[in-house]
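Chain A, query sequence.
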Amino acid sequence: MNKSRIVKGGGNLQGEIKVPGDKSISHRSLILASIAEGASYIKGFLYSEDPLSTANCLRNLGVKIPKIVKDESFEIKGVGLDGFSEPKEILDCGNSGTTMRLLIGLLAGKKGKNFILKGDNSLSERPMGRVCKPLRLMGGKIFGRENGNKAPISIMGEKLKGGVIGTPVASAQVKSAILLAGLTASGSTSVIEPASSRDHTERMLKAFGAKIEIRGELGRNIVINPGRDLAGQEILIPGDISSAAFWMIAGSIIPNSNIKIKNVGLNPTRTGILDVMDSMGCNYEIKEKRLIAGEPIGDINVKTASHLNSFIIEGDILPKLIDEIPILTVAACFCQGISYIKDAAELRVKETDRLKVMARQLRKFGANIEEKEDGLIIKGDSKFVSAEVDSETDHRVSMSLAIASIMAKGSSTINRADASNVSYPNFWNDLELLL
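Chain A, predicted structure.
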């Protein structure tokens, strides 16, 4: 992950692209297809490091997943809810927090079987206690470094008990881990969230035939009842709006740009970026809206906006755009006035401390950014000059710095630029295509 890229400032972006399949849905399609009865067919899968880590772990649990080829559909024959075999080796989750957190929930209830999960250096420092703690309340035996908060994680499978579990933060990964554990628990499991987080797991569980109810009291309440087998499905994975966000912002801030992004997932728990773009005054429209396998999708057309307003991001909208904060930080540098990002302490425990890294790297271009404990204050109307910057191994930082470099005068160097492969292996090709 040490490849450098040189990006020349100036120019504009024109053309039509398709972004990679949604990362969240790609992970979940593998997991649910693996524990279903019968065959599932997956199309539009994101061929990148994180979902491939999930596929490798599931193979080590005895699921027959064929070699996944980029841009090709494939079939998984599920082993059922109790069909996992005890792996002979440690399950390597790579850099993928989603893989680790969802597998902890999936494996905690596999009575009589033992599992160990590890990750790379970055993942080994990310918090797992938020998943392990509620699963222990259900009877899970889960151990790890720093009182069970850090990987490697060891799981002794137990029969879990259902119950009412409140999550302290609105996190799709925590909620999903509990729901997956609830599939084989005794009695129903109810997850109460303080605010809505991504609901891909609920939508997909429903499509696979799980007995799941979504209720509105106390924020958001999702109830899963065990005792029903899942049935294999055909899954078409839409384009990832978090990947589309780089082009949506680039098209808005880079002069004389006009970009069409095809087949983007428009799940309402993921479209916070559109709300922020509305408040900024961005020039975009959505066409060809349709529903596929319960997920809304459409084509997004973005043109340069002549005037962009500063914005405030805080509160309940955060879970809807947590992955888009790095590129929105770049956007804020070119809005008029001061933009505020608040309540975003969650970004400190992503692949990197994204608040610190974005502030540190954008200052090299000349950005005026103040870092706060839970967010950033960004002064707009920046005039960027070329710089040597570093992704610090974070895929979303790498791509955000690429867009920032186009707004800088002169040629900039981005070190460890191929971090983008984690979620968007074709990013640099698509950038060349559009420039």
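The mean pLDDT is 93. The domain at 23-165 is CATH 3.65.10.10 (UDP-n-acetylglucosamine1-carboxyvinyl-transferase; Chain).
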